[in-house]
Write a structure and sequence with these properties.
By secondary structure, the protein is mainly beta. The chain is about 15% helix and about 35% strand. It has a 15-stranded antiparallel beta sheet that branches. A two-stranded antiparallel ribbon has the order 2-3. The radius of gyration is 21 Å and the shape is globular.
Amino acid sequence: MKRTSSILILFIVVLFFSCDGTITSLSSDGATISIDRIPVFSSSSTIVSTSRSIVPESMDVSDFFYTLLAPPITRFEETSESFVLGDSLEVDLFGNSVTLETSLTDEGYIMMSGSVVEEDTNEDEVETGKIEIIYDSANGKFSYYSEVLICNPNEVHVPMEPEMHLYVIHQIPFTDIGTDNSFIADFKTLAYLKAPSHLEFQVIENGELYSGPGDSGGWNLGFAFVSFESLRSSSDPPFDFISEMGIDFNEDWILADVSGTPIADAQFQARRAAMVNAREALFAAQGIRGNPIVGIRTFDDDFSYTTRIYMSRNSTDEIDGITLGVSEEGRLTDEHGELIVFSIDETADPSLSEERIEINQANIDLLKSGLPNADWRARTNLH
């Protein structure tokens, strides 16, 4: 079996807007409730008609990593026409249309929510995920939550074998939306990665997602985190508390078969629930620490974009420390164009495949200095 990448693998969403003016909902005094902003999602993809969980054939590796390492929301925009409670947003997940219905929460917020529904191995419908966005229109805030299954049976050239699948959870707490529709949000990510002889949870607890105007026009979207944790079945000893929560390290503990089809509904839902219920304990666990990663998408006026992912590169004879780079030529620099070199954690396990960046304030400050957008550098809360 090929070596499984330890990079956290997440998911991909494309959003388009649909307004059904014949469906409305009224407030308690009989007035129609207008929704002034809608979320915008984006990602590069080729729509495939077979299953939402299939990785698109046209996706390149950098775009794959970006969309899988960060929540997929791009920005907010004002509605261009009357959009009221009861209207819906249509979310396209790999060619599978998911309707986000609008409703009111008990607190009076606007909920945009929908289920991801597919056919299981018995050709029955199974809910394999969901999306929930809560919008506080009075105070200009939003929160985000999603779950999704991802498979790659067609062997698209990304770091994910056909026998592997993932289940990914994203969370963003209530976050302010700027008057220009920009935001800077904390996020959490939990990814369940299953290969035939390998089970792993990868956890980002303190991620940061930036969405705002670019330094040279257009729009920038970026994410960064100081580290992540990897909880692996191959650890010696394994993480026993995971089994105590009903999650089995056994190779039969799968969510989808090699064709990308979800397992039978009842079994799928039981395993899904076990992971969702365990997420706070998994976030709190101390696993094998991974290095910082920075991603940036630069949007043009026509909403096309370029993507760069900066991952760690070991020290060399020329560089005494660790750099982050998209390639040997494209390494993370500060605002003055100076190469950023992080100090090495000398206490890290030497058997690991890559050196570890020491987590100290000096290195965190260096990471902040490399965020590729001036507004982001000024507003960052990375820690």
